[in-house]
Amino acid sequence: MKVSIEQEIKKSYLEYSLSVIIGRAIPDVRDGLKPVHRRILYAMHELGNTYNRPYKKSARVVGDVIGKYHPHGDSAVYDALVRMAQDFSMRDPLVDGQGNFGSIDGDAAAAMRYTEARMSRLSGEFLADIEKETVNWRANYDNSLQEPIVLPAKVPALLLNGSAGIAVGMATNIPPHNLGELVDATVHLLDNPDCQIPDLTHFVKGPDFPTGASLYGGQGMAEAYATGRGTVRIRGTIEREEDKKGRISLIISEIPYALNKAGLVEKIAHLVNDRKIEGVADLRDESDRNGIRIVLDLKKGSIPDIIENSLYKYTPLESSFGINMMAVADSRPQLLNLKQILNHFLRHRREVVLRRTRFDLDKAERRAHILEGLRIAVDNIDEVVAIIRGSANPPEAKTNLMNRFELSDAQSQAILDMRLQRLTSMEHEKLLEEYRGLIKKIEFYNSILNSDEVLRGVIRDELLDLKKTYATPRKTQILAQDPSEIDIEDLIADEEVVITLSRRGYCKRVPLDSYQQQKRGGKGIAGVQTSEGDMIHSFITTTNHQNLLLFTNLGRMLTIKVHRVPEGSRYAKGAHIANLVPLERDEYVATAMSVREFSDDYYFLFVTKRGMVKRTVASLYQNVRASGIRAVNLKDNDELVLVRQIEHDDEIVLTTQDGLAIRFSCNEVRPMGRTAAGVKGIALRGDDKVVGGVVVPPENQEKPVPGKGHLLTISESGYGKRTLISHYRIQSRGGRGVINMKVTPKTGQVIGSMLVDQNDELIMLTSGNKIVRISVKDISVVGRATQGVRLANLDGGNLVGFDIVRENGVDKT
Predict the structure, then answer these.
(1) N or C, which end of the chain has less CB nearby within 10 Å?
(2) What's the confidence (pLDDT) of residue 489?
(3) What is the pLDDT of residue 808?
(4) In 3D, which of 191, 171, 45, 188 has the Cα closest to residue 117?
(5) What is the pLDDT of residues 15-54, one digit of tens each?
(6) Are 329 and 344 in contact (CB under 8 A)?
(7) Class of 492-810 in CATH
């Protein structure tokens, strides 16, 4: 016979697809179980392997399942049994396991010959009344036995423990829920069939995972309950502990559902080693049978909020859970919403209760019928005995009794089988009492069958009893606000801080109030402890919420939020800048500055060691890659020295280490692109190089104002002076400049300059790791060609850095 290949393939693939969908991967909406789980529970029920009986070897259970009902491999059945026993996989485990059933670290369970199992108490509610013809049956795979098509579950198990599976062309992923909440929602739906999904979500707050954690559902959870499909986010729980020495540790006590804990610890360790998560001194897993406990000891000065945010951002400690409530309903796979799932369960319970009631009613009526015959026999015992004695054999006796007292065959047989002890007055009373009890039961059973209100009452009572017996408190916290909407900066005060950066790249952040003001000429207080041969070269006063811009000697720009710089004490060495931003070989941070935002309202002025300058609008630098961007192109043997923030009408004063300076308008430097090389700003002599760049705003350019518009110049030997800006005449860009400071062996070379007012404060760092803070008004105002006065007693060392604290806040230039 010829067969079309196309038609045969379509037919065969469709049959295979239906087999996988209904017979393997997608759970039934009524009992919430896949066939393998249903067969495991039924096989254990048949073995008498209940919660109040001794454990049996798992191999015995698996053998019965595959030998009688499940035509698949033993490993597939054992894996399913193991998962049913894991309290981190099932919200309410259906198997009570004894032995090694695996761990949340991904460890496999011991072989089935070593472990033992029995049904949990809750799983008994899945099979309650199964012997009362409450469900339909079908032949097993070899037609030798019968197995239930569905279990008469009292529990809305599809939502209770959830389910996950991949079939052909479809999949299901249903999260677990809290039993008490499910019962409340089901009872509400039972009493209010026309209620809406928002009414049900008043009871079902959201998924309740066995591993706890926190959950933000928002619109995704609302869509999942309304349509059957949506996405929610799960966050692990992080707690803080502080020891007696004030050291803070972060404790991860709950992790997202289905996350491998060992994999999470390994991921965190890699991020710490790769310095993507900064500030962790030690990482260890102290988890035991009492719960999860992953400990991260923090370094002193680290900000816990930043590290927590990094853990959520870079690790699976925060992950998404895609809800897809696909289940088999009415013999076909359907995407169901919350109300539909509960309605299908209630319809199943109605059918089970009605079938159970018919079974019990039939049994009660048959027993009452027998008792009616026994009561007649007891009331007429002498005549009954005479009839029996006068009969030739039992069949004749049965016939004679039926004819004399109008009894049925069953009643007559019961009289013949009755023991003589039933003739006592006590036994007679028991018969009457049993009969009266049966009459009441029959009336109750008939009321269930005839009244929908009574039927609902039975279902309601059973559900509430279930909640009273098995419900446990919610484990997963529902977050009111989307964690992604919480800005880490909202958790950090915008305080004034000082950023220090050493020549070898060590960086730290110190609160400004750590430095106290002193008198001019003081020795200073202990400052940063740098290693031998290292010294501070960038000293910036700023605030926590600003952007720290790092410009390297090779002309690249990198950026980081100020609050992400590790905090340290005055004397701490700090963390290496390479831990915060990526640097290339032989590259170091030449200058740093802070800005709050990038815009078209101001420019960056770039100055190189060889006197080149470039002006570029700041907005071109707002999109900075993690690897940095090119800020300026440099010529051979040149390096970027400093960057200043300027506006269109500003003037610039460049100062050199040999004591020269040039003043010109920024308009002489036309705006250029981000990668331009720039133009000549000052013509240098010999080995002279640019060490300072001062921005002069319009208010300081005209007639001098008392106490304002002074150029502060400082030398490496601790000498400094203030000079009026008006003493520096305007020149054209590219000139040689004028004398700025008289450089002598006593003063040493110039290290920098800055525009100051008399109410500002000067902070200086020395190579001897001292910090000096004095008032600017204590520094003399003198002419250009002078050496100035001693600002700090250096004890044989040098000044290596300085910065200004403005009268009304931190210096923004």
Answers:
(1) N
(2) 61
(3) 47
(4) 45
(5) 777 766 776 789 999 999 999 999 999 999 999 999 999 9
(6) yes
(7) mainly beta
Q: Which CATH number applies to 237-316?
A: 3.30.1360.40
Least confident of 268-272, 530-534, 552-556: 530-534
Q: Is 225 a catalytic residue?
A: no
User: Which residue of the set 13, 16, 51, 114 is catalytic?
Assistant: 114
List all residues 6 or more positions away from 102 whose beta carbon is below 8 Å from its beta carbon.
Answer: 82, 86, 108, 109
Tell me the DSSP string of 256-297.
Answer: -TT--HHHHHHHHHHHHHTTSS-SEEEEEE--BTTB--EEEE
DSSP state string for 111-160: PTTT-EEEE-TTTHHHHTTGGGT-S-EEE-TTSSSEEESS---SS-HHHH
Higher pLDDT, 389 or 664: 664
Q: Are the CB atoms for 568 and 498 separated by under 8 Å?
A: no
Which of the four pLDDT bands, split at 50, 70 and 90, describes residue 524?
very low
Least Cα distance to 109 among 62, 63, 42 occurs for 62
How far apart are the C-alpha atoms of 239 and 258, rounded to whole Å? Answer: 21
Domain ranges (residues) in the chain: 237-316, 357-470, 492-810
Residues 6+ apart with CB under 8 A from 280: 268, 272, 296, 297, 298, 299, 302, 307
Please state, in angstroms and rounded to a whole number, the distance separating the CA atoms of residues 540 and 509: 10
Q: Which of helix, strand or coil describes residue 549?
A: strand
Q: Take residue 534 and report the two structure tokens written for it.
A: 């290292």
CB 199 within 8 A of CB 188: yes
Query: What DSSP designation does 730 have?
Result: B
Q: Are 605 and 614 in contact (CB under 8 A)?
A: yes
Domain at 357-470: CATH code: 1.10.268.10
Read out DSSP for 400-437? HHHHHHT--HHHHHHHHH--GGGGSHHHHHHHHHHHHH
Q: How many helices (H) and strands (E) does the chain have?
A: 17, 42
Is there a contact between 389 and 490 (Cβ–Cβ < 8 Å)?
Answer: no
The pLDDT value given to residue 681 = 93
Structure tokens at 32: 């919430």
What are the CA-CA distances from residue 668 to residues 255, 604, 671 (Å)? 60, 14, 9
| 462-519: pLDDT as tens digits | 999 999 999 999 999 998 765 555 555 655 677 888 888 877 788 888 887 765 544 4
Q: What sign does the CA torsion over 122, 126, 131, 134 have?
A: positive
pLDDT at 535: 56
Helix, strand, coil content of the chain in percent (nearest 5): 35, 25, 40
Query: Across the chain, what does the average pLDDT equal?
Result: 87
DSSP code, position 373: H
What is the predicted pLDDT for the residue at 523? Answer: 45
- Find out whether 454 and 447 touch, Cβ atoms under 8 Å: yes
